[in-house]
Amino acid sequence: MGKRALVVIDVQNDYFPGGRWPLVGIEAAAANVARLIATFRAAGEPVIHVRHEFAGEGAPFFAAGSDGARIHDSVSPAEGEPVVLKHFPNAFRETGLDALLREMGVDQVVIAGAMSHMCIDAGARAARDLGFEVTVAHDACATRDQEFGGVTVPAAQVHAAFMAALGFAYANVVATGELAD
Length: 181
Description:
By secondary structure, this protein is α/β, with parallel strands linked by helices. It has one domain (3-178): Rossmann fold. It has helices at residues 26-42, 97-103, 116-129, 155-169; strands at residues 3-9, 47-52, 83-86, 106-114, 133-142, 146-148, 151-153, 172-174. The strands form 2 sheets. A 6-stranded parallel sheet has the order 3-2-1-4-5-8. A two-stranded antiparallel sheet has the order 6-7. It starts with a strand and ends in a 7-residue tail after the last strand.
């Protein structure tokens, strides 16, 4: 068995009620992320936080330097835990995440956070393409309703579709209870 790390993607204030881009079920997902963090910390396994900021004016959410772009208090990094800043949905694109994981000797990543259909999907696929074994904690992820062709797709269906697709070829998709104490 190799070395694993928890990668917490974009659990930031703007995704919570009162934020600029609230997600369906984010509070329950964040509670599961917190459980995963506690489990990894107790086991001495790495926890890496990824935080998104949009560059420039007119950001729809996660505006650089804003309170909304801060990591939510429920999953705050502990002293010494790395925080990777990204500007694209893929947490590996133009960041040091891949190098950081390799320096730590990690070959397995557990991914949790937001949004299921965007940054979780992009990060999980990239991690697998880079050779990591990938697990996604599906109930530690959240998204929001999406619209296509005049049809609103409920968040639960968006989430299920993306978890099904990841589970087909990119990741082991499991519940938090299978990973956390």
